[in-house]
Design goal:
There is one protein chain. By secondary structure, the chain is α/β, with parallel strands linked by helices. The protein has two domains: 215 residues, Spore Coat Polysaccharide Biosynthesis Protein SpsA, Chain A (Alpha-Beta Complex), CATH 3.90.550; 72 residues. The chain has an eight-stranded mixed sheet, sandwiched between helices. The longest helix has 35 residues.
């Protein structure tokens, strides 16, 4: 049995040697199977690539994909998926928040219970705003998507070759890997893991970047926002009809009744204008994604592959 390990990194020069040592301890604990450690350099600006190359000199089972620039985490994972073919395949970050020792539990679970994929549900101590945003996001997703998405689950997982091959066939440009794992609909299970704080660097996912990823997930896997246009049309049609009937009845009952036309028109036009702009924005989000797909550019560009 061969274990494939997909390990993307970005500015992790201090963590890579520690990560490698811990991963080798894990390999020993699961019986020293054949393995391939695939590093993906996602456009690091520090000496991370040089550190990875030095590790490769000591271990010929290390392979390194060097991106031409930073393509972000999900695309780096997809590149790893495209270039590995283990019987069991692990996806793990190198920042040591997802500790390599947990791979032992993942391995034992998937082998003993003959599962297709086992993922890690994180127990995080996030700051209040991010925790609130995350809870709102997953609640919204549960209502918008037909695919159940596990809460507080990242990319840290182990999967069989059948799951890997399914993910390799996906060629979407707007990737949201957490959704794609669930979309494959294989037999999965979870283990719980309390994440430690980062040892060296803060996450390079800013709040706005996380917000953008949330929208990518919603628009990539749900057409419910498109239906908002129909819902708004029905609501404003009903409101307009009710308002018209009200003014007609009042005028018939009291011919001296004076309709305050200008304020009413201003309020209604403002509301309708805002709704129109909202619907247009939703439509352009989908059209923009269609445009990206039709250009058919490669998802990532590789400067070099070190084998």
């Amino acid at each position: 049995m061969k274990i494939g390990i997909i390990a993307p990194f970005y500015n992790e020069e201090k963590n890579l040697p520690i990560f490698y040592e811990e991963m080798m301890k894990t390999i020993q604990k699961i019986g020293n199977p054949d393995y391939e450690l695939l590093f993906i350099n996602d456009g690091s600006k520090d000496a991370s690539l040089e550190v990875a190359l030095n590790l490769q000199k000591k271990d010929d089972k290390i392979k390194i994909i060097d991106f031409s620039r930073n393509f972000w985490h999900d695309i780096a994972i997809k590149a790893g998926i495209d270039h590995i073919d283990g019987d069991l395949n692990v996806i793990i970050d190198t920042d040591l928040q997802d500790h390599p020792s947990v791979v032992v539990d993942l391995y034992n679970k998937i082998v003993s219970e003959n599962l297709d994929m086992v993922y890690v549900r994180k127990i995080d101590h996030w700051w209040f705003l991010r925790r609130t945003f995350t809870n709102v996001f997953y609640s919204l997703i549960a209502k918008l998507s037909d695919i159940p998405i596990p809460k507080k689950v990242g990319d840290f997982r182990i999967m069989k070759k059948s799951v890997l091959h399914s993910l390799q066939r996906i060629q979407e440009k707007s990737l949201y890997m957490k959704w794609l794992y669930a979309w494959t609909w294989f037999k999965t299970w979870e283990i719980l893991y309390q994440r430690p704080p980062r040892t060296q660097w803060e996450s390079y996912y800013s709040f706005m970047r996380l917000f953008s990823l949330a929208f990518d997930g919603i628009f990539a896997f749900s057409t419910v926002p498109l239906r908002l246009a129909t819902i708004l049309w029905v609501i404003f049609s009903i409101l307009g009809f009710i308002l018209g009937i009200y003014y007609l009845i009042v005028k018939l009952l009291d011919p001296s009744f004076y309709v305050l036309g200008i304020p009413t028109i201003i309020v209604m036009l403002s509301l309708i204008g805002g709704m129109i702009l909202l619907v247009l924005w939703i439509m352009w989000e989908y059209i923009g994604r269609i445009y990206k797909e039709t250009k058919n550019r490669p998802l990532y560009t590789i400067k070099n592959i070190y084998e």
